[in-house]
Amino acid sequence: MVSSMRTLNEIFSAFKLNKGDVNKLSSEAKFVSIDCGRKGVVKELEPQTWDLLDDISDEVWYSDLSIPEKINLGFQLFEIFPSYYHFLVPFYQGIRNKEIFKQDDKAVVWNNFMNYLASENYYADPVSYVLWVDFFEDERTVRESWQGLVNNYSERESLLRLLECAGPVPFDLKSMVYESLLNDRETHTIILNSLLYSAYDAFGKIDKDGTRKILAKLKVDTRTEKYKLLMDKLQ
Fold it and tell me: How far is it, in rounded angstroms, from Cα 74 to Cα 96?
């Protein structure tokens, strides 16, 4: 366990990072984080940047800081260096391994995630990715994380963005959100996309009968390729 650094300034000082260094690293991390996990997009941090952020992350998550302090400092670092692997995966590991176990601490994580989903793409894209491939593909965390997220949001945009990365979420959980949005026609295209991803994701979860019932209530163009692809999966 490493000695505790409780502020960003202490961390930057320990790693001999001046304001210019931080700004440069932040710009690199933000550029790489956009379209994180998207098929066909290959962007990587410079090897020295990767190693540096790895060391900084370890300083937080393998320290003797309290869990609330780790969560707070972890999000401060993500705000500056929005790297999926270095500053989001530790939240997944903490919850999966029951190191983050208090409901109040988890609520801070869910609330921050939902806020970032409604923010700039360099925040929203890596958060979408960690939810999709880590929290939602893991049966140990998917139900709790989904319920925590949908119970801790203030902007509709974040909920709609959540639906777009919800392919692996059990259908009974997603369907309740779909139903709650059906009266808002502006959400129907997002619901269609979410159903499509649920059908085609490698670990996607979909219920054919339930999907047909929701589709029947959507006001969308049935001539699109997306609609046809979804219907193919429902045969």
Answer: 17
Q: Where in the sequence is the domain holding 195, given as residue range(s)?
A: 166-235
Number of structural domains the chain divides into: 2
Residues 202 and 226 both lie in one domain: yes
Residue 123 and residue 205 in one domain: no
Residue pLDDT, tens place only, 88-108: 999 999 999 999 999 999 999
In this predicted model, what pLDDT tens digit does every residue of 172-198 receive, in sequence order?
A: 999 999 999 999 999 999 999 999 999
Please choose, from the candidates 1, 160, 165, 15, the residue with its C-alpha nearest in 3D space to the C-alpha of residue 77: 15
Q: Work out the angle between the directed axes of helices 89-96 and 47-61 (0-180°, nearest 10).
A: 40
For 80, how many CA atoms within 13 A lie in the half-sphere containing its CB? 19
What's this model's pTM, rounded to 2 decimal places?
0.94
> 17: Cβ–Cβ under 8 A, 6 or more apart, which residues?
25
CA distance 124 to 30: 11
